[in-house]
Amino acid sequence: MTFDLSKLNEKIKDKSQFLQSLESEAAKVIVGQKDMIQRILIGLLSNGHILLEGVPGLAKTLTIKTIAELINTSFNRIQFTPDLLPADLLGTLIYNQKNGEFNVKKGPLFSNIILADEINRSPAKVQAALLESMQEKQITIGDTSYKLEEPFLVLATQNPIEQEGTYPLPEAQVDRFMLKLKVDYPTEEEEFEIIKRMAHPNPSFKTKSVVTKKDILDARKVVDEIYIDDKIFKYIVSLVVASRDPSAAGLPDLEPLIEYGASPRASINLALAAKANAFINQRGYVTPDDIRAIGMDVMRHRVLVTYEAEAEEVTSEDIIQRIFEVTEVP
Questions:
Q1: What is the pLDDT of residue 4?
Q2: Per-residue pLDDT at 91
Q3: What distances in angstroms separate CA 174 from CA 113, 164, 285, 302, one per listed residue?
Q4: Which end of the chain has less Cβ packing within 10 Å, N or C?
Q5: Cα separations (Å) of 183 from 145, 226, 269, 303?
Q6: How many whole angstroms separate alpha carbon 163 and alpha carbon 252?
């Protein structure tokens, strides 16, 4: 290594202190869902947007709102509906009769953290407007482009069980999300605690801002410094390439089950998310365990299965699991 690891570890220890405060404050409101909270933190630290999928009532919206409240930044929740227009997100030009000029009225996307609730309830042109701002980090109104202030993070939720009246995100657009999280039901113990809390609401569960915008931006600079060895880069490439050419990776039985493998965005996001995971674990370098920890969330929406796989009830997660099992760990 060509850098001072002990010095970097000290820096990580210093700049990651806010994470503990954030998690303990969030626990006052949210029972369980530690994986979801940690993945949202990974998105914040690695500048990556997140898609959360799960049935209603699993605290997706509550978790995002709570974390946004704990961070002293601007936050907007946008409820996606079929009649929403791109201007409702981006903003528009309004004619001022007094001076005969058009004034800019900025939309709710001009915030640091955006909760796009039920993103699949709006038509394609609205989804495209959101996804363009996610990719370009800017919004154009009239002839003027406005840079979005960092941090800019979109956390979108969608309900997988309702198809009527929804507009599924095209696969190419889903690729813009760094992570796709599958939010599951709480355990029996967690649900017991949820019921107790809801039956006797406790005013002490109110949260307060414990993180500043500067904390996040400073932490991102340290995350950038985290070391990734060439062996880890090769491991990432091997995993992603195996999803495109499973026969060469020793998995010929997966060939008829994969329609499209993961794009190069998967490789980039695996590296970035792994660095953020190492930072959360107060480590100055990435290990294969970091890749395995976030691999499923980075790749599940980037490996598309064939009709044959669907007929055999094989999911992209089953395929990714097999790839991780056979790919040699450095």
A1: 75
A2: 85
A3: 19, 20, 29, 8
A4: N
A5: 36, 29, 20, 19
A6: 34
Q: Which residues pair with 78 in a beta bridge?
A: 116
Q: Decide: 107 and 91 in contact? Cβ < 8 Å.
A: yes
Q: Residue 116 is encoded by which pair of tokens? A: 């796009």
Domain locations along the chain: 30-199+208-216, 227-326
Closest CA to 278 of 222, 204, 216, 231: 222
Strand residue runs (E) in the chain: 50-53, 71-72, 75-79, 91-96, 101-106, 113-117, 138-141, 144-147, 153-158, 179-182, 211-212, 258-260, 304-305
Q: What are phi and psi of 113, to 5 degrees?
A: -120, 125
Tens of pLDDT, residues 83-112: 888 888 888 888 777 887 777 888 888 888
Homologous superfamily (CATH) of 30-199+208-216 is P-loop containing nucleotide triphosphate hydrolases (3.40.50.300)
pLDDT one-digit tens code per residue, 195-232: 877 776 655 566 777 888 888 888 999 999 999 999 99
The two tokens of residue 117 are 């609730």
DSSP character for 246? T
d(CA 277, CA 16): 12
Entry pTM = 0.86
List, in order, residues 6 or more apart from 92 with CB less than 8 Å away. 104, 105, 107, 141
Task: Please name the amino acid found at residue 154.
Answer: V
